[in-house]
Write a structure and sequence with these properties.
Layout: H1 2-36, E1 40-49, E2 55-66, E3 70-72, H2 78-84, H3 87-108, E4 114-118, H4 121-125, H5 129-140, E5 147-152, H6 153-158, H7 161-172, E6 176-182, H8 189-195, E7 199-202, H9 204-208, H10 213-229, E8 232-236, H11 241-250, E9 254-256, E10 264-265, H12 266-275
Parallel strand pairs: 2-4, 4-5, 5-6, 6-7, 7-8, 8-9
Antiparallel strand pairs: 1-2, 1-9, 1-10, 2-3
Helix pairs in contact: 3-5
Bound molecules: ligand C2E and magnesium ion (MG) (3 copies).
Length: 279
């Protein structure tokens, strides 16, 4: 009898697994199709300095206009993109598209100093990122120092020798590197230093809870560490004036968040940049 039940349990389990993998497969096919049909779009979110609030950068953030489900954020499709390898063509699309946009802003005289583009580990590990970045810059006729690659602290931990070499080559070409979502992982200080990054972005979660003494302590010591290592600091997810004032007090170099602007479609960001007067 026990055997019988066991068999039932097994069948139930495989049925669920099948349902799961079929759903995944459908989502993957839909994402591939969406990419081919041009349903993916790059949004842009400004970064400003503290305390002057000068424009210091714009981050490219991918969105998916799903025909049935509406506007989708990366959290609802990036894991499928990673699992399926679609992150490679998606990443290439974001890089190429945003470099062209940056070039247009430069020609209009409203460009921020840098364009920031997020990378996934697969992009560093499997595809020819050096060639890809080179081509995107050349295609847009954009100087390398205008492009900053954002790598999360978690990705940096997972980088091996090959990936680190790739990053070194990119640094050698004049691209900038930012450590994204800092505080969410546990990198060794030696690894951080070796990376030779320009910028360290403090993770949203500590800014959201900045009024709590524990988060304030983490942010304060992160800023001190970054200063000692020669990185500038940008706080992500700054939503209100209290957070802004606290960050100025703590010596943070910049902010990104809804207090300044949300991520916007290119046209809207063009209007935003054109009317932003603090430079
Ligand atoms: P991230 O790089 O840390 O980007 C910052 C995220 O915080 C963005 O979420 C942004 O919309 C959101 N945000 C900005 N200001 C505020 C605020 O004031 N409050 C709150 N609550 N959130 C704010 P988004 O656009 O949903 O992107 C999520 C993550 O997806 C990004 O986190 C990044 O890791 C990843 N991602 C986005 N675009 C790409 C891409 O093209 N390639 C890769 N590999 N990853 C991407
Ligand atoms: Mg980022
Ligand atoms: Mg971030
Ligand atoms: Mg983040």
């Amino acid at each position: 009898r026990a055997k019988q039940e066991g068999r039932h349990a097994y069948r139930f389990f495989t049925d669920r697994m099948n349902a799961y993998s079929i759903a995944r497969q459908l989502q993957e096919n839909r994402l591939r199709e969406g990419l081919e049909l041009g349903e993916l779009e790059v949004y842009y979110q400004p970064q400003v300095s503290l305390p002057e609030c000068r424009l210091v950068g714009v981050e490219a953030l991918v969105r998916w206009h799903h025909p049935a489900d509406g506007l989708l954020l990366p959290q609802s499709f990036l894991s499928i993109a990673e699992e399926s390898g679609l992150i490679l063509p998606i990443g290439a699309f974001v890089l190429k598209e945003s470099c062209l946009q940056m070039k247009q802003w430069l020609e209009m005289g409203i460009a921020p100093p840098v364009l920031c583009v997020n990378l996934s580990l697969q992009q560093i590990a499997y595809c020819n990122l050096v060639q890809l970045a080179h081509d995107a810059l050349q295609h847009a006729d954009l100087p390398a120092h205008r492009l900053e690659l954002e790598l999360s602290e978690t990705i940096l931990q997972a980088c091996g020798d090959t990936e680190r070499k790739t990053l070194e080559t990119l640094r050698g070409m004049g691209l900038r590197i930012a450590i994204d979502d800092f505080g969410a992982g546990y990198s060794s200080l030696a690894n951080l230093l070796q990376l030779n990054a320009e910028k360290l972005k403090i993770d949203n979660r500590f800014i959201g809870s900045l009024s709590q003494p524990q988060s304030e302590t983490i942010v304060r010591s992160t800023i001190l560490m970054a200063q000692a290592m020669g990185f500038s600091t940008v706080a992500e997810g700054v939503e209100n004036q209290e957070q802004l004032e606290k960050l100025i007090q703590l010596g943070c170099n910049g902010i990104q968040g809804w207090l300044i602007a949300q991520a916007m479609p290119a046209q809207e960001c063009t209007r935003w940049l054109g009317s932003y007067t603090v430079r």
